[in-house]
Amino acid sequence: MSAIIGFKAYDYRGRIPGELNPDVAYRIGRGYAAFLKPRKVVVGRDIRLSSDELCEALTRGLLDAGVDVFDIGVCGTEGVYFATFSEAMDGGIMVTASHNPPDYNGMKFVREQSRPISGDNGLKEIQKLAEAGGFHAAVTRGHRFELDVRRKYIEHLLSYLDRSQLKPLRIVVNAGNGGAGAVVDQLEPHLPFEFIRLHHQPDGTFPNGVPNPMLEENRASTIAAIREHGADFGVAWDGDFDRCFLFDEQGAFIEGYYIVGLLASVFLKREPGARIVHDPRLTWATQDMIAAHGGTPVMSRSGHAFMKDVMRDNDAAYGGEMSAHHYFRRFGYCDSGQIPWLLIAQILCETGKPLSSLVAERIRRFPASGEINRRVVDAPATIARARELYEPRARAIDFTDGLSIEFDTWRFNLRSSNTEPLIRLNVESRGDVQLMQQKTEELLTLIGGEIAH
């Protein structure tokens, strides 16, 4: 059989139809079944035009391998996570390409309890099995069932709130024509909030651009709506809404880094002394907030597979990455793009403070560069040069993920991307914007390379 191009560190992504088509989807289903040997598997799909056909082929592959398939229909990636752990399934597969262009699609895979399957623990084996082919029909073909977990899922989301404390808020919600709008509609009857809907209808052609709020040009409509309607805050999602991006009442985009500490404070008030997992790219604001609330910070390598494993190993209540992935113990240690904005709404209602003021002190005390990407010829050599230059004067050095070097008043993390041929830089300081900017420029000069998004 031919090679299957598109397996990444954490999932599968491919262009339609050359790299990903029904034949490839079928073979991936057979490879997954041969590797995991599950009895019951959840499948779900996003709103892309190719997702129905690919999901059908994937399902056929699983059925031919003797696996019973439980189809939860159109959903977000977290819908597959939720169904897998809440219904005690042996695994789950989500057909999605998240924020990739419309002519892409892909798959995300989990095993029992929604434990991740990545390149280090099974994805390469699935690829080899799918490529090898030679599949034999199972003695007993599997059965397909439709499974509706929407009500249980909505009840679970609402369980993070103390609804007696909620007050009327006006919230701009931008689904980017992805799948998040349907969840907002299901939550609305249970909440005292007024929603200003943008690009709300699911549309796999993405008429308003690919849903990726990380791109500045995709934020304009959310910002304008917040200002026009005098909203209390705004939320925008990527296509499969496993991440949400937040804007304050003035329309300012809030870097995911500053949300991590805010959400950590919620769980530490509920569970004093809890462990909170964070990534190494930007750390000081998060660690400071955790310490202030009596928690224990635990550092993990960036990436959902690593974060989830560290969450489980430490039985952490919550974990957050600056990339806007937020993980919750009660959500199978998985990431959700719905729970974070609900908790932010709860904080606003309980404190009576605007979102801008809740993050202002964090931003002032720990200014950060945000993640800067550069395309370089030799990432390991670039990182080695940075280490050689800065290590002799460093207060601390860490290799949890790439290179982290810390001084008294500033620190940086430099790492190779897990998914792209890029090097990524993050710099922060203790209350000194000018120093942060100066050191950022200094490091960028050392790194060189081409600007990358």
Unreliable spans are none
Our count of domains comes out at 4
Termini, distance in Å?
A: 35 Å
Task: Classify the oligomer.
Answer: single chain
Can you name the CATH architecture of the largest domain?
A: 3-Layer(aba) Sandwich
Structural class: alpha/beta
CATH class label of the largest domain: Alpha Beta
CATH superfamily of the largest domain, called what?
Alpha-D-Glucose-1,6-Bisphosphate, subunit A, domain 3
- The count of helical stretches stands at 14
What is the fold named in CATH at topology level of the largest domain?
Answer: Alpha-D-Glucose-1,6-Bisphosphate, Chain A, domain 3
Strand content: 15-25%
Could you report the average pLDDT, rounded to the nearest whole number? 96
Query: Cα-atom Rg, whole angstroms?
Result: 22 Å
Brief sketch in words of this structure:
This protein has 453 residues and is an alpha/beta fold. It is 36% helix and 22% strand.
Characterise this structure.
With 453 residues, the protein is an alpha/beta fold. It folds into 4 domains: 12-151, Alpha-D-Glucose-1,6-Bisphosphate, Chain A, domain 3; 170-251, 3-Layer(aba) Sandwich (Alpha-D-Glucose-1,6-Bisphosphate, Chain A, domain 3), CATH 3.40.120; 256-335, Alpha-D-Glucose-1,6-Bisphosphate, subunit A, domain 3 (Alpha-D-Glucose-1,6-Bisphosphate, Chain A, domain 3, 3-Layer(aba) Sandwich); 372-452, TATA-Binding Protein (2-Layer Sandwich). It is 36% helix and 22% strand. It is built from 14 helices and 22 strands. The chain has helices at residues 22-36, 51-64, 77-86, 123-132, 150-158, 180-187, 220-229, 256-270, 284-292, 304-314, 339-351, 355-365, 379-390, 433-447; strands at residues 12-15, 40-45, 68-74, 91-95, 104-111, 144-146, 169-174, 193-198, 233-237, 244-247, 253-254, 275-278, 296-299, 318-320, 326-328, 334-335, 372-375, 396-398, 403-406, 410-416, 423-429, 450-452. The strands form 4 sheets. It has a 6-stranded mixed sheet with strand order 1-5-4-2-3-6, sandwiched between helices. The protein has a 6-stranded antiparallel sheet with strand order 18-19-20-21-17-22, with helices on one face. Strands 8-7-9-10-11 form a 5-stranded mixed sheet, sandwiched between helices. Helix 9 links the parallel strand 12 and strand 13 (296-299). It is globular.
